[in-house]
Every structure is written in C-alpha cells, then in structure tokens.
Specification:
By secondary structure, the protein is α/β, with parallel strands linked by helices. The protein folds into 2 domains: 120 residues, Aspartate Aminotransferase, domain 1; 217 residues, Aspartate Aminotransferase, domain 2 (3-Layer(aba) Sandwich), CATH 3.40.640.10. It is 40% helix and 15% strand. The strands form 4 sheets. It has a 7-stranded mixed β-sheet, with helices on both faces. Strands 11-14-13 form a 3-stranded antiparallel β-sheet, with no helix packed on it. Strands 1-12 form a two-stranded parallel sheet. A hairpin with a 2-residue loop joins β5 and β6. α3 packs antiparallel against α11 and α7 runs parallel beside α8. The longest helix has 25 residues. The N and C termini lie far apart (62 Å). Bound molecules: pyridoxal-5'-phosphate.
Length: 395
C-alpha cells in the first residue's frame, strides 16, 4: 500500500457517484469561486463542479484532518501519489510511465510555468491553439513571453490543430506548443494519428510540447496521452495531469507532472524542489485516494456528464440549431456560438447566468461562450431555461 493511504477506507461499502442534493444556499456557502463571484446569477463558468467528491476522497481527507496532516509534503507522500498516478494512467489511459518520472506539483499551471522556464530561451514563443483555457495566454503575456495563437479548425464540431497551421506557428518563432487533450473549451479528443502528425512537425522544428491532461478522466472515449504516442513525442514533452477536475478538489493544490525526457528530469532536480513544496499534503492525500477510488464512481460521474450533455444538446438545439459550436467527447463543457442567437456574451448577465466568455480565449472568439455542465440536472435545466431567453432579447 502506498505511503499515506488510509487503510480504514479499503473495506468500506463504497457507493457510486451521486450528483448531491445541495441547495443553492449550501453551494454558495462553500464560498468557492464558482458560486461566490456572481451571486445574482446561476454559475456555469469556472471549471468546478457542484458534485460531492468520491467517498474515498472524503474519507481520506477526514482521516488526514483528524491526524492533522498539515506539514510539508514528505517524500513518502510524493512516492505514494507517484505510484497511484503510474497505476491509474496505465489502467485508464494505457500510458506506461515510471514512478520516478512523476513529480508532485501544486497545480497544472505550475507545470506550465516550469515548462516555460525550462524550454523557452530569449525570444522564443509559446504556441497556443485557440480557443484556449485563457490562463495560458495571460501567464505567457505577464511574463513577457510572445504568444503565437493558432486558431483550431472546426471540422464538423471537432476543433483540431492542423499540421500546416502548426508549421506556420513555428515559422513565426513558436517553440513550445500547448496541447490540451481533452481540449478545453471545445472537448476534442485527439486521435493517435493526429498526435503523430503533430509530433512530426514539432520534431522537425526542434520544438517542445506542454501536454495538459487535466481533463483526461472526463471523457466518453479514452484519450491517448501525447507523450505516450511515440518516443519522439516522449522526448520533447512535459506532461501534467490531475484529479482536481473530475474529483472536484481544485482548491486542495496537488497535481502531477510527468517528465519523459532525461534532461528534463535533471532540470527538475535543479528547479523542482521549491515547486514541489508548494503542493498541499491534503491535496496529495486527495489525489492518491481519487486515483485509487472505485472506478465505478468515475464511470458514474462520466455517465452523469454524458446525460447532462444530452439534456443541454436538446435544449440548445431547440434555442437555435447552430448554437452548439462543438461536439465534445471530453471535458464537462459545451462550446457555444452566441452570434447564432444574435447575442453578445455580455447579455448573459441579463438572463441571469454566468458562462466563461470566449473573448478571453483567443482572438476571434468574442461571440463564443463556454458552458459548464458540472451541475445537478435541475440546476442545469434552470440554466438552460435562462439561456433560452437570450434569443428573445434581440428579437
Ligand atoms: C485545461 C486546463 N488546464 C489547466 C487548468 C488549471 O489547473 P490547475 O488549477 O491545476 O492549475 C484548468 C482549469 O480549469 C484547465 O481547464
């Protein structure tokens, strides 16, 4: 048993996923970003869900709190979560990595910043396919790093990075490609063939890849981690994964970085200690418990998200057939083109919902918005009812 795991949870009767029956007051009382930022609106924006986490995660955290596991993260905790990660990615994603390649970090963005520090030298730029999870743009710009935005091509609802567009980005001084799979916000899951094509272009340009797998547990089909698709890809990639989205523990601060290149491992030896110490022991305990939890819980979670997607699809298509701008296979997002209902994202406030605005996600996406499906079906239905009023605003 890995260090730090909780023997008392092992033999318990573990119930499957439940969406919870929290009132809006209870959700607001969590004082998390999602429910407290726009108190007058129904929130479907930031990537938190409203669901309770898995029973094993709750139990492990309660146990850790009871024994006041509040000190700095120890090597045995790091080893424990590394082994739990190795097993989970092998069993669920078919990706074989070694435990010494898995590093504890506070969050996925810390891995992105490590990749920026490690891979970019004077003047080289980050390549960010757009639309994108907007902090990639914000962090690079704040650090004075140039960004080459590459608009994804919408192929019948699958938003994909094409090799010619990627080559253009390298021609413009790009060096580090951000590859998010499943993709936030469009929900595309890349095929192995697409990833091999991307790897050829990256390799030909001596580029590097930051592979963001944070949404990998949330998928209708198995994602193939980019670094696992070929040795070439493994050598030019830093990967990051976390349990924080599916098991809803983003505030607990623990993620895993996977270094599949020996010189990156040496770089970690020089730079990694400080980053690793910023992870929280409660986050590490939660991640370990999540990776080791009953797979039925995650299956139940994914089934609930799929059913929410069907509910959303029906309502959104009734509002306007072109409103759904993507056909996601992963993540708990829907990507919406509000121009189809002649609406502007600022009008979302008038109908009482908070979605994430496309204007933050790259040039050209000002009329788009991202809807978070991670809510009880009744809440989602209320959000969809309010979205239906958008088309009435301008008619
Ligand atoms: C694609 C993607 N990457 C990174 C993050 C940030 O993760 P973390 O909180 O671990 O930095 C998110 C959060 O929603 C995300 O969706």
């Amino acid at each position: 048993m890995p260090a730090g795991s909780n023997p008392s949870t092992k033999d318990q009767d573990i119930s499957r996923f439940s969406p919870g029956e929290f009132s809006f007051d209870e959700l607001s009382s969590r004082a998390s970003l999602k429910w407290s930022t726009y108190p007058e609106r129904l929130p479907a924006w930031v990537a938190e869900t409203d669901f309770p986490t898995a029973p094993e995660v709750q139990e492990a955290l309660a146990h850790a709190v009871r024994r006041e596991q509040f000190g700095y993260v120890s090597d045995s905790l790091r080893d424990g979560v590394a082994w739990a990660t190795v097993r989970w990615v092998a069993e669920n994603l078919g990706w074989d990595v070694r435990s010494e390649q898995v590093k504890t970090i506070p969050d996925v963005l810390a891995a992105f910043e490590f990749a920026l520090d490690f891979y970019l030298d004077g003047g080289s730029k980050v390549i960010v396919p757009t639309p994108t999870y907007y902090p990639f743009l914000v962090i690079a710009k704040r650090r004075g790093i140039g960004v080459v935005e590459v608009p994804l091509e919408n192929q019948d609802g699958r938003w994909v990075l094409t090799p010619p567009e990627l080559q253009r980005a390298f021609n413009e001084g790009g060096k580090l490609l951000v590859l998010c799979d499943p993709h936030n916000p469009t929900g595309t899951i890349l095929t192995v063939e697409e990833q091999l094509d991307i790897a050829s272009v990256v390799d030909a340009n001596h580029g590097r890849v930051f592979s963001d797998l944070i949404h990998a547990p949330i998928a209708e089909q198995t994602p193939h981690p980019y670094a696992g698709t070929s040795l070439v890809a493994a050598r030019h990639t830093i990967s990051a994964i976390a349990t924080s989205k599916a098991w809803n523990t983003a505030g607990l601060k623990a993620a895993q970085m996977v270094l599949t290149n020996d010189s990156d491992l040496k770089g970690w030896g020089r730079l990694g200690g400080r980053i690793s110490n910023m992870a929280s022991p409660l986050g590490v305990v939660a991640a370990m418990a999540a990776y080791e939890s009953d797979p039925e819980w995650l299956r139940g979670f994914n089934a609930y998200i799929s059913a929410n997607r069907v509910t959303a699809q029906r309502s959104l298509e009734a509002i306007h057939p072109g409103l759904r701008a993507a056909t996601p296979k992963g993540t708990y997002f829907e990507w919406l083109d509000l121009s189809q209902v002649s609406a502007d994202p600022s009008e979302l406030a008038h109908v009482g919902v908070a979605l994430s605005h496309g204007s933050d996600m790259g040039a050209g996406f000002e009329n788009y918005a991202r809807l978070n499906l991670g809510a009880h079906r009744d809440t989602l239905t209320a959000i969809l009812d309010r979205l239906a009023r958008l088309s009435g605003l301008t008619s």
